[in-house]
Structures are given as C-alpha cells and as structure tokens.
Amino acid sequence: MIKVEFKYVDQKFTYLKVKGHANSAEYGHDLICAGVSSIVTGALNNIDAKNYDIEIKEGLVIVQTKNEITTHDEIVFETMYTQLKTIEESYPSNIKIIK
Questions:
Q1: What is the dihedral of CA 54, 43, 74, 49, to 10 degrees?
Q2: Averaged pLDDT score across all residues of the chain
Q3: Residue 28 has pLDDT above 90, yes or no
Q4: The model's pTM
Q5: Alpha carbons 61 and 21: distance in angstroms, whole number
Q6: Burial of 37 (0-12, 13-18, 19+ CB in 10 A)
Q7: CA separation (Å) from 77 to 24, 63, 84, 93?
Q8: Are the CB atoms for 24 and 94 separated by under 8 Å?
Q9: Closest CA to 64 of 75, 73, 55, 77
C-alpha cells in the first residue's frame, strides 16, 4: 500500500511523505504506482525546490519546508492532494492519504 501523509501548520503546508508501493500489479506494470509517481514528480518539478529539503528514494519521497512557501507552491501541493485523493477514492486498498 502507498501511504501519503500531508502535514500543515496554521493551514500552511509543511511536510509530505509518500511511502510504499500499491502492489496492484507486477513490478513495472503497476498503473496505480505509475499514476502516483507521475503526480508527485510533476508537482515536485513545479515547486521552488530551494525552499524545501527533498529526499527521493525507491518507494519514498519526503518533502519538508525550510521557509514559508509561496502561494504558487501551496496551489501545487493542494493540486497534488486532490489528484492523489481521486486515486485513493478509486483504489482504497492500494493508497491511503492522511491530511
């Protein structure tokens, strides 16, 4: 299962952790994992990376704010949340989101 954790302080994004695998198909053919990876990668490509500590490994992404984030980045994280929530609603046994 993929576990996604969003943390906020005073309604501002501060932390993201995406961990695990969906295990919905054979490795390399798992469309849920591919979808989650695409969403997370696309979002991270659109933020101002200098404002974050970012760790990316096989089956793990951690993003921690270093500075107050911009309105643009807040929108990117909220868009990511909405996209991942859509996957969770369709595949609740493969992805769990905590906000």
A1: 40
A2: 96
A3: no
A4: 0.93
A5: 12
A6: middle
A7: 25, 11, 10, 23
A8: yes
A9: 55
pLDDT grade for 46, boundaries at 50, 70 and 90: very high
Which run of H or of E encompasses 97?
A: strand 95-98
Nearest alpha carbon to residue 74 among 12, 29, 25: 12
Tokens of 22: 């969906």
Q: For residue 27, what pLDDT is reported?
A: 85
Specify the pLDDT at position 58: 92
Question: Cα–Cα distance between 42 and 55 in angstroms, integer?
Answer: 15
> Token pair for residue 61?
């992404």
Spatial distance between the Cα atoms of 8 and 21, rounded to a whole number of angstroms: 24
